[in-house]
Design goal:
6 strands, two-stranded antiparallel ribbon, about 100 residues, mainly beta, extended, DUF3228
């Protein structure tokens, strides 16, 4: 397990066990830079949008994935994020393990 981008986040890298899974990242080169798109997006209506960049799926060929990056959040962070989600009203938030996924 490796440290994540914030104290409440950890990365668990495992060999890819999904046949046909493609890598999620493709290097930006001079040859494909003109295909790059960007936009502010939010995962939910309750979150602030952040700038994201991507290539349209059919514009570039992604290599096969060799590893999967499982991103785990601390129990405390999952509870914090869940508490501000309207769908969480009335749910038991104490059932989360020490680390999990959102």
């Amino acid at each position: 397990m490796r440290e994540g981008y914030a104290p409440f986040c950890k990365h668990l890298f495992v060999p890819c066990f999904l046949p046909g899974a493609k890598a999620e990242a493709v290097p930006i080169t001079d040859d494909n830079r003109h295909l790059l798109r960007s936009e502010y997006q939010a995962r939910t209506a309750d979150e602030l949008p952040v700038l994201v960049r991507w290539f349209p799926q059919k514009a570039v060929e992604a290599p096969d994935a060799t590893f999967l990056d499982l991103i785990l959040y601390s129990r405390e962070q999952i509870i914090k994020e869940t508490e501000v989600t309207p769908a969480a009203a009335g749910k038991d938030l104490t059932r989360h393990r020490q680390w999990g996924k959102t």
